[in-house]
Amino acid sequence: MILNARDKITKSLLSLLARTPLLYYPYYRKHFPYPSVILIENTNCCNAQCVMCPRDTLTRKRGFMEFGLFEKIMKELSGARRKPVVHLHGFGEPLLDTLLPERIKLAKACGIKHTYIVTNGSLLFAETSRKIIAAGLDSMKISFYGTDVESYHATMRGLDFNVTLQNIKDFLRIRKELKKKTPKLILQYLPQETNGARIDEFQTLWRSLPDKNGGDCLNISTLDNFGGGKSYNIVGEKIVSVCFYPWTALSVLCDGRAVTCCVDYNGVQGVGDLNCQSIEEIWNGPVLSGIRKNFGKLDYSGFPTCLSCDWVRRR
Ligand code: SF4
Ligand code: SF4
User: Fold this and answer.
1) Which atom of ligand 2 is found nearest the CA of 311?
2) Taking a C-beta distance cutoff of 8 angstroms, is the pair 85, 3 a contact?
3) Is any ligand 1 atom within 6 A of the Cβ of residue 45?
């Protein structure tokens, strides 16, 4: 299963788990020896200025993960008995990274069963499609937040509707020509004011293109507050949910620091540093153990992003 906490079904399941802490108390006291998902930010640079994205408040230095550090992470994962799903993106556009196909290849060579990216698709030119298909990418989500030139440009500012649309059509054609089933495609729409929230039109636009029998699908997502970076959702006064992240996933920023989750886009909630620690050390170490203990009691003090996070305060 690909953990994608922004998808509706995953959200509902996790919310059920999180809102019944006593029932799942034994689960909260235990964790697997390795994360089920590791999110590796290959870059935090982006070529878009999407209207709903809090990138205008991104204070971290922009850059790309050094390949040597990536190799170190993969080498450790190659020895893990239960290998995590590897996300190769973070708070940026992963296709800006010219080394992405090499990273995918290496991850697959290290025995990672599932590799995944989320992209805006604007740079998914034919050659890039060929490279990521050949590298063995397993699934790819493309954020496509418009149904025509006007709504797309008003939402995904800086990108071109026709270029991305053509890229997606070309990707599907190339994958078919190469007789490959992967990467599976998830085409995501995010209804909001600037794009008129035209879900029906989005579904009509993509009715015949993706290979639904082969596992492609459409996904309708919802707006997020990004730990206080935006304020789309009304949050309750009290924290009501246990956040599942420290039990399931580890997020690594492009400079190698590990943080509590992908929502912490400014990296203020550090849990370790993969430049000088192993995943195993961080995952089973005192910092994350303390966090699990506190989160299990709904105590998020000392974690400013969590305290503003709508995932645990949503009404
Ligand atoms: S493509 Fe993604 S990271 Fe870039 S501005 Fe849009 S939402 Fe933000
Ligand atoms: S900000 Fe905190 S509460 Fe929100 S998803 Fe991340 S770890 Fe969980």
Assistant:
1) 4
2) yes
3) no
What are the tens digits of pLDDT across the range 128-183? Answer: 999 999 999 999 999 999 999 999 999 999 999 999 999 999 999 999 999 999 99
Is the beta carbon of 262 within 6 A of some atom in ligand 1?
A: no
Torsion angles phi and psi, residue 188, rounded to 5:
-110, 140
For ligand 2, atom 2, the nearest C-alpha belongs to: 306
Q: 245 CB less than 6 Å from ligand 2?
A: yes
Contact call for residues 132 and 165 (beta carbons, < 8 A): no
Minimal CA–CA distance to 155: which of 142, 143, 167, 163? 143
What distance in angstroms lies between residue 123's CA and the mean position of ligand 2's atoms?
30
Predicted TM-score (pTM) of the model is: 0.90
Calpha distance 255→253 (Å, rounded):
5
Nearest ligand for residue 3 CA: 2
pLDDT at 9: 59
